[in-house]
Amino acid sequence: LSAPRHQTISFLSDYGLVDEFVGVVKGVIRRISPHAPVIDITHDIAPYDIRGGGLALARSVQYLPAGVVLGIVDPAVGTDRRLVAVETNDDDRPLTLVGPDNGLLASAVAMSGGARRAVSLTNTEYHLPAPGSTFAGRDVLGPAAAYLTTGVDLANLGEQVDPLSLLPGVLGLCRVEDDRVEGEVLWIDRFGNAQLNVGPEEMEGLGERIVVRAGHIVRPAVRAGNYAELNTGQLGLVVDSYGLVAVVLNRRSAGEELQLAEGDRITLEPGEDT
Amino acid sequence: LSAPRHQTISFLSDYGLVDEFVGVVKGVIRRISPHAPVIDITHDIAPYDIRGGGLALARSVQYLPAGVVLGIVDPAVGTDRRLVAVETNDDDRPLTLVGPDNGLLASAVAMSGGARRAVSLTNTEYHLPAPGSTFAGRDVLGPAAAYLTTGVDLANLGEQVDPLSLLPGVLGLCRVEDDRVEGEVLWIDRFGNAQLNVGPEEMEGLGERIVVRAGHIVRPAVRAGNYAELNTGQLGLVVDSYGLVAVVLNRRSAGEELQLAEGDRITLEPGEDT
Amino acid sequence: LSAPRHQTISFLSDYGLVDEFVGVVKGVIRRISPHAPVIDITHDIAPYDIRGGGLALARSVQYLPAGVVLGIVDPAVGTDRRLVAVETNDDDRPLTLVGPDNGLLASAVAMSGGARRAVSLTNTEYHLPAPGSTFAGRDVLGPAAAYLTTGVDLANLGEQVDPLSLLPGVLGLCRVEDDRVEGEVLWIDRFGNAQLNVGPEEMEGLGERIVVRAGHIVRPAVRAGNYAELNTGQLGLVVDSYGLVAVVLNRRSAGEELQLAEGDRITLEPGEDT
């Protein structure tokens, strides 16, 4: 495999694709760094959803090319919250994450070897002059990402900050007690699969037949290797493509069936074998 | 016109743009083939809609650049359905289509000169190691598309299969009987235009004024060269940009007006001239 | 900063991302001009909304790289309305705008130094041969944008037209009378911020506390530097990232709260200080 000539910017935001926000940030990037390709991770993170954006970054980051990851979910835009660039410890795939210091980047940084260096993006020479302070993606974060791909060193973008001072993410662990697993819905995808913060090893105490509790809904479920093994309407627990347990149906939405939302508590208990 | 330095990957899926699926596949592609540009055909094929995805590929394929077409609508992901790469017979614009062998690629292959060679993507050296089996786009199909643009020969990706064994598409022909044309709605686009599986030559027996029947709805329509020729609320039959007959309104949705869905039967009959 | 090797095409349309329209235009562009990068401004302009598309282009254009701006919102597709390419007067960032002559491009042209030369895209040598006349983006506008990035001169694309004959945009100015400002909602973004055609200097006659009238709704509002300064539910007037006054709430939609639509009239009056 050949090394790319230009570093990639992988871009996630809650800007949506209806307004021109994403296009404008890309225009700004291209004027600063004409040859840096931009990969869109997604721009449809729910508005202000730092948790959802952070989880999407954490799921994606191991698959992204070397370069810059630009993450923008920034409810406190315009206040004195810090905007940061964080260089990670992975030498095989050098990665710098750029975004607000509100926990959005934390899990992705942790999954990339942790933070080696970090700066607060305070050097206005690398900002766009702007009339208001409400579009930091265009005026500060996008330019920082672009300059990093042109060879500007992190240290030039602002004052160094202690990586330990960066706001951590809020990833709850599941609880295993007796033969119950208490977890949380991390993500409900387009197909209605509900990914839990539960690994397959945490389900060892449970048998083949499992009872899923979510709010007032109680439903039997079976372990399955994939969706297609399930009969119509049969609830399944599969190890998903990220190695986590997901509650699924075959060609239908488990999220709708169990009336789940991201962040909901969910309990797995041993079911009775018949 | 100059030849491109790098082969293009044209990418269609039912992944949607809300989750990070498309971004992750692009990250994987870029790490394997840093300089291959990716064109998004669309990612909003309805979940599991093999027919809709196959029709969108068929409409698009003649306009796509040489290289790879990556098509992913894969309801049976994780089962033993084959994943394939199909090289077409068009020497002027060499094209290899990559996707599940479920009929999705069939019409596009047929419109590109037919299949010359095909392989089943069984060589795991060209797969990503993955925890689950539910994200074939990331782990098998995306990598195959990427390796093809780096010069890897089709034959390396897996065992050769007989092109005749590939699952065909299911494209119904319209029926012309006496002076009636019985067709089917292939596609309802964003503007509400309903494309039929009817060519202009099949309407020769019908006059200028035509009656459109769709379910319980019966409406007069006129032939028109384009939308703007139609009066407000007047139903029109135009030859659309793909050379097929479409039922349209001027600046309104004919699909909504006639309560149509893709796949619906529709009948065209001669109307009475007044 | 290095100059880009290839000119960029910045692309806005009302095609949406569900159908394959955008992908097909990109395929056509890449076959003509293999190395021209394409930036998507947005493709979710409401169908036929020339005003909304024109405003999005006007907001974006100052941030776009040199090259071509392709704008397609074309309700009269297939009629004899002109399709044009307009070269602007800005020598620092040479820009040619391509689209229908229906006012869509007008504000963006004006903001880029005005029109220097314009042609009607009548030279069919630079069109795609096409069965119908309803997909001008694929058959005429996309090819024109692509050829311009390969070095084809504007004059080759068709007959020259007087820039003064181009249809102007319809941008209403706000009225300031006594101590009232009567404006219009230009744009409601994803976050519900309602941008007005009112600049900060036009609010000078108003005090710190302001009354906002929109239809039957009357609400007090305060000036604020950004969203986060506002208490929960408190309506604010901020200078937005384009230098215009916007009606906003903190982490909620001001557009929904005031039941606003783009184009609505809105009045700002001095409020009583308590």
In short:
Chain A is of the alpha+beta class and about 270 residues long.
Q: Hey, roughly how much beta strand do the residues of chain A contain?
A: 25-35%
Greatest interface and its participating residue counts: A-B, 39 and 35 residues
Oligomer: homotrimer
Mean pLDDT of chain A equals 93
Number of strands of chain A: 14
Instruction: For the record, give the distance between the C-alpha atoms at the N and C termini of chain A, rounded to a whole number.
Output: 54 Å
What is the number of helical segments of chain A per DSSP (H or I, 4+ residues)? 5
Shape of chain A: elongated
Task: Give the helix level of chain A as a range of percent.
Answer: 10-25%
Ranges of chain A where pLDDT stays below 50 over 5 or more residues in a row are none
Order of helices and strands of chain A: EHEHEEEHEHEEEEEEEHE
Main β-sheet of chain A, in a few words? 7 strands, mixed, barrel
Structure overview:
3 copies of one chain form a homotrimer. With about 270 residues, chain A is α+β, with helices and mostly antiparallel strands. In chain A, about 15% of the residues lie in helices and about 30% in strands. Chain A is built from 5 helices and 14 strands. Chain A has a 7-stranded mixed barrel with strand order 8-9-13-12-11-10-14. A 6-stranded mixed β-sheet of chain A has the order 2-1-3-5-4-6, with helices on both faces. In chain A, a hairpin with a 2-residue loop joins strand 10 and strand 11 (about 215-225). In chain A, helix 1 packs parallel to helix 4. The longest helix of chain A has 14 residues, at about 135-150. Chain A is elongated. At the A-B interface, strand 1, strand 2 and helix 2 of A face helix 1 of B.
